[in-house]
Design brief:
This protein is mainly α and about 130 residues long. The protein has two domains: about 90 residues; about 35 residues, no CATH class. The chain is about 70% helix and about 5% strand. Strands 1-2 form a two-stranded antiparallel ribbon. Helix 1 crosses helix 2, helix 1 packs parallel to helix 3 and helix 2 packs antiparallel against helix 3. The structure holds zinc ion (ZN).
Length: about 130
Amino acid sequence: MSVFDRDDKEYDCYHGDVFYDVWRGGGNPDAVDYDRTTRDYYNGFSSGESASNELHRQRRIHESVRERRQAEEYERQLQYEQHCEEQQGQSPRCDICGQHEAVTGVNGYGVCSQECANVATTKETS
Ligand SMILES: [Zn+2]
């Protein structure tokens, strides 16, 4: 067995161990950066150290993605609320429930839904 064969085996083993430790640590083995673990290997890090570096890196990416999503969600919520306020200022309310935007008129009442339309019809006849 040549030196290279042995090295290759160790090298494969090393990556296997890193993948396993990442997986066991709750990370995503598929997202392991092969180039980085190779560098760790040649820099003399143990597979465990390399795995924890990888986990750290993945968590950081995960965190930043989550923070960005939260920011986007917040932005959307703000826009939605502003949209609602504009709607409340501009659109006529349902005359029956007063809760929603009136979409049609029934017997002189602005109504938002079939339910309110039915009530409006009852009002007209009674
Ligand atoms: Zn209504």
